């Protein structure tokens, strides 16, 4: 793996660089061939919060995780755990589809074995626990933000009155708002 590590409001010391490369490098065991893409790591510090963002672009798959902690080394550990879960989930999903279709491609994931000698099938499934239907009302983004805040949600789906397309407003981690527009 090739690493692109940059710091925002922090100097990336050789010790931090070595630790991050070592921790993220352990993810190579999940692949039959080492990923050839660059691993983008962004380290940032705001107030007392240390944040690490990792993006690993691959063919037909984008692995991305971010974590915040008071300690940069702990944040690196947490982000690697998140990435491992993502890889296991994706591998389980791919293997399940392959078993159903009885095909042979493996998508580059190596077989992993847990500590008890059993094949690791992942421990997380995606399950829809609730389904909602509602009519989308034409409105502008400001009105959608007000509706979202009144409902106490983190996002709100609406029809943009100006473009007549489906949009989503959401609350960002920094407390500001974002808008997603469908093309």
Q: What's the structural blueprint in terms of helices and strands?
A:
Blueprint: E1 2-8, H1 14-25, E2 38-46, E3 49-58, E4 61-69, H2 72-101, E5 138-139, H3 141-151, E6 155-160, E7 166-171, E8 177-181
Parallel strand pairs: 1-2, 5-6
Antiparallel strand pairs: 2-3, 3-4, 6-7, 7-8
Question: Can you walk me through this structure?
Answer:
The strands form two sheets. Strands 1-2-3-4 form a four-stranded mixed β-sheet, with helices on one face. It has a four-stranded mixed β-sheet with strand order 5-6-7-8, covered by helices on one side. The model has no long low-confidence stretch (mean pLDDT 81). By secondary structure, it is α/β, with parallel strands linked by helices. A hairpin with a 5-residue loop joins strand 7 (166-171) and strand 8. The chain is globular, with a radius of gyration of 20 Å. Helices cover 29% and strands 30% of the residues. The chain is built from three helices and eight strands, in the order E-H-E-E-E-H-E-H-E-E-E. The protein has helices spanning 14-25, 72-101, 141-151, and strands at residues 2-8, 38-46, 49-58, 61-69, 138-139, 155-160, 166-171, 177-181. The protein folds into two domains: 2-103, 2-Layer Sandwich (Double Stranded RNA Binding Domain), CATH 3.30.160; 138-181, Sigma 54 modulation/S30EA ribosomal protein, C-terminal domain (SHC Adaptor Protein), CATH 3.30.505.50. Helix 1 runs parallel beside helix 2 (72-101). GO terms for molecular function: ribosomal small subunit binding. Its main location: cytoplasm. Belongs to the HPF/YfiA ribosome-associated protein family. Long HPF subfamily. InterPro entries: HPF/YfiA_ribosome-assoc, HPF_long/plastid, RHF-like, RHF/RaiA, Ribosom_S30AE_C, Ribosom_S30AE_C_sf.
